[in-house]
From TrEMBL:
Cited InterPro entries: AB_hydrolase_fold, Esterase-like, Ig-like_fold, Ig_E-set, Mycobacterial_A85_antigen
Pfam families in the record: Esterase (PF00756)
Source species, domain of life: Bacteria
Descriptive protein name: Enterochelin esterase family protein
Length: 380
């Protein structure tokens, strides 16, 4: 195997000018096969890579290259991996944590940004980028008065580019709609996938919670809002299929719990579910503390109950999760629960973590399986 760039630099006993040239020649992190070299430059007592790959310590120490102010860490990452990370720098009692100043690539989320490493074999899918040839769908805002939620609920409604009143369309309801639109490029993805005929032309309702940790944690009120208020209104006002084969709920993390919980309460209403990195934490084996705090208590109670007495909640269930997430074990387990009910299940594991780019990258697999292109999809 060719020697790593950092090892070649070490052998030359570099000075500051050599480090300058080294950094000018290489993109950071330096990706060489399955090895990724993370770098930081400056004076410090300790430097750590902060990451959340399950099975590894959250803080991985960087080593200082002797005689220089360059710090490095070589991490083995399988082909196709993508990880978010930050750098923690300690000087005496002072600790700073932030994004990698040597890496311009960023991952975005509602809680801020982080640096991102693309391992060998990962590339941002082209269908997540704007395509000038794809006709754009229309995004409008709808306000639904919800007695169930005791508030007005704002919904962003997507109509496909060639929308016509004479055609019946399937319906997709997306939890955390604003975040999917902003951080997972959902409108661009929909425009592109429908333009390429990967996905059937679909009406999409992006719902937004007021308090997601409450409304999405097995909330009967949220389930009533979806099934008795939102879906009937959309089917009354728009040309929709109007039967279970043309209704799908999609959510990630707590949004996946909300999707499953709503379908559990209305098992004949939704034909498909898309559950991404679901927070399906359970304690029915051994009765151990779930460790998620009080917000997870209703989730754990619901998942324990469902695992004990599973029932078919949809005909088709798409499940995905990153192998670097702590949730991977729970998601692998619940796949077998869904299969035991007779539902058609597709499970996809990604070399990624709990983040919006992971869920964005999974949209084509999910939607083309649930609502495949017009030449394939037949409503029963």
């Amino acid at each position: 195997m060719t020697r790593l760039a950092i090892n070649r630099l070490k052998e030359r006993r570099p000075d500051a000018a050599a480090v300058d040239r080294f950094l000018a020649r290489h993109e950071v992190p330096i990706v060489e096969g399955d090895r990724c070299t993370f770098l930081w430059r400056g004076e410090a007592d300790e430097v750590f890579l902060v990451q959340r790959i399950v099975g590894l310590p959250e803080l991985l120490p960087l080593r200082r290259l002797w005689g220089t102010d360059l710090w490095y860490l070589v991490l083995e990452l399988p082909v196709g991996s993508r990880i978010n990370y930050q750098v923690e720098v300690r000087r005496g009692e002072h600790v700073e944590r932030g994004n990698d100043p040597l890496n311009p690539k960023l991952s975005y989320s509602p809680v801020g940004t982080s640096s991102v490493c693309f391992a060998h074999g990962y590339a941002t899918p082209d269908w997540t980028e704007p395509d000038p040839d794809a006709r754009p769908g229309e995004l409008t805002e709808l306000v639904v008065q919800s007695p169930a939620l005791r508030r007005d609920s704002r919904v962003a409604l997507y109509l496909p580019a060639r929308f016509r009143r004479t055609v019946a369309y399937p319906l997709l309801v997306v939890h955390d709609g604003d975040d999917f639109l902003q951080y997972a490029a959902a409108k661009t993805v929909l425009d592109n996938l429908m333009h390429r005929l990967d996905v059937a032309e679909t009406v999409v309702a992006f719902v937004q919670p007021h308090d997601r940790l409450s409304e999405y944690a097995d909330s009967a009120a949220h389930a009533r809002f979806l099934t008795r208020e939102l879906v009937p209104r959309l089917e009354a006002e728009l040309p929709l299929v109007g039967q279970s084969s043309g209704r799908c709920l999609l959510g990630s993390s707590f949004g996946a719990v909300a999707s499953l919980s709503a379908a559990y309460r209305a098992p004949d209403v939704y034909g498909s579910l898309v559950l991404m990195s679901g927070s399906f934490v359970f304690t029915d084996i051994g009765g151990a503390d779930h460790g998620g705090g009080p917000v997870f208590d209703p989730v754990v109670k619901f998942v324990n109950r469902y695992r004990a007495r599973p029932r078919r909640v949809a005909d088709r269930v798409f499940v995905s999760c990153g192998v670097y997430e702590p949730l991977i074990t729970y998601n692998r387990s619940i796949v077998h629960t869904f299969e035991s009910t007779g539902a058609a299940v597709r499970f996809v594991e990604t070399r990624d973590g709990h983040n919006w780019e992971n869920w964005r990258d999974g949209l084509r697999d999910a939607l083309s399986w649930v609502y495949p292109g017009p030449q394939k999809f037949v409503y029963e």
